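User:
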Amino acid sequence: MTIVVLTGAGISAESGVPTFRAADGLWEGHRVEDVATPEGYERNPVTVQRFYDARRRALASVQPNTAHLALARLERAIGDELLVVTQNVDDLHERAGTRHLVHMHGELLRARCDACGARVPWDVDLEPRPPCPRCGRRMLRPDVVWFGEMPYELDRIERAVTACDVFVAVGTSGAVYPAAGYAALAAACGARTVELNLERTDALVPFDDARQGRAGELVPAWVDEVLATRR
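Assistant: Predicted structure:
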């Protein structure tokens, strides 16, 4: 049985990572258009760099929660039959122990060079502009996918979604594409679909199993169910 788990902001929120957009429409006090678009970066690169520098530094103050740990436990049990696809840019899945992982929206702990295209590990500030370790140009930016940019590894994700037996969405809003369409794609290909979320989302196709609650409670319980069927 192959499983694809899509995780969104809800799973990391329970570790203290701010969700993407607050009720007032702002992201940590900033308009999304100012800090999460290429145009915002072009207008004010210093503000954008400092915004992501602060978020990168903040990772040290959060830890994986029971939902992250449960998915890592599932991976240890079933190996490469599980693929975790995350919309989150933090490293909580890695710290929990997950290795079969795709960061479709990039990672805070990586930088990308606009001059040579290199994507490199990065754990310190990007402002003031340091040189790229590959080409030496001072054109590094956060390796985070902004609105209007193409997410990473879409072909790999689509292959996994269309081939999986079970598709699970954890802590996602169901509003950001292309990720929002994966449950419907999996269902069309015959997969059983499961939603583990604080609230039921308005999915294109209803989930076969929709459970509401905290990820830290729902995910470990679901993992226990999966492992019980394999004994």
